[in-house]
Here is the input.
Amino acid sequence: MIKLSPSLLAVDFTELGKSCREVLAAGADMLHVDVMDGRFAPNFGLGIPLLSSLWRRVPAVYDVHLMIERPCAYARAFAEAGASLITFHVEAEDDPAETVRAIRAAGCRASVALKPETPAEAVFPYLNMLDMVLVMSVEPGFGGQRFMPETLKKMRAVRKEAARRGLALDIEVDGGVDEETAPLCAAAGANVLVAGSAIFEAADPRAAMCHIRAACAEAQRGEKR
Here is the structure.
């Protein structure tokens, strides 16, 4: 089943709470919160105070993506601010296994992300510890980038290894996901899709999400034939 996680990078921040309520009511499964420190990723994203305020007013599953150098130190703070799922990068400075343990100790599900140039095998040592792997299909830092089709091979590799181990692992894709690229990701084994402008900037977010899900379902049926 395809889950949709609209990215708040694409939201009109003057209407943040209203827009989040609208996409949730329209069928979004969770909300994707990008956190950047200006060093690991060349931008600054959302932070703890904003997440905490939003969580108190808009109940949801918050899918928090830490694009920061030292994620381990911030796991508990983001959990207390409302995160349900915390993703950090395997390329970050902290030890991945230690960071996963910190996330779980804080009461959240744990996920590891891979930049486009990082091979799938980099996350294999940690698969049995994880709830999800996030495959970046653009370079971290900015919304609105073009989808990188070469990352589809990585999605297939992660899904194949998870299946070999008998793991019910979510595979999330972030970057350039829309009605055209979403089915490619679904066919490659991804089941959690981060879409920003394709949902928040759509004239009808409900229809946009329905179209994405329908296209993914068709692609998955084709893959099984």
In short: The chain has eight helices and eight strands. The mean pLDDT is 94. Residues 43 and 119 are 24 Å apart (CA to CA). The helical segments are 16-25, 48-57, 75-81, 96-105, 152-165, 182-187, 197-200, 205-224.
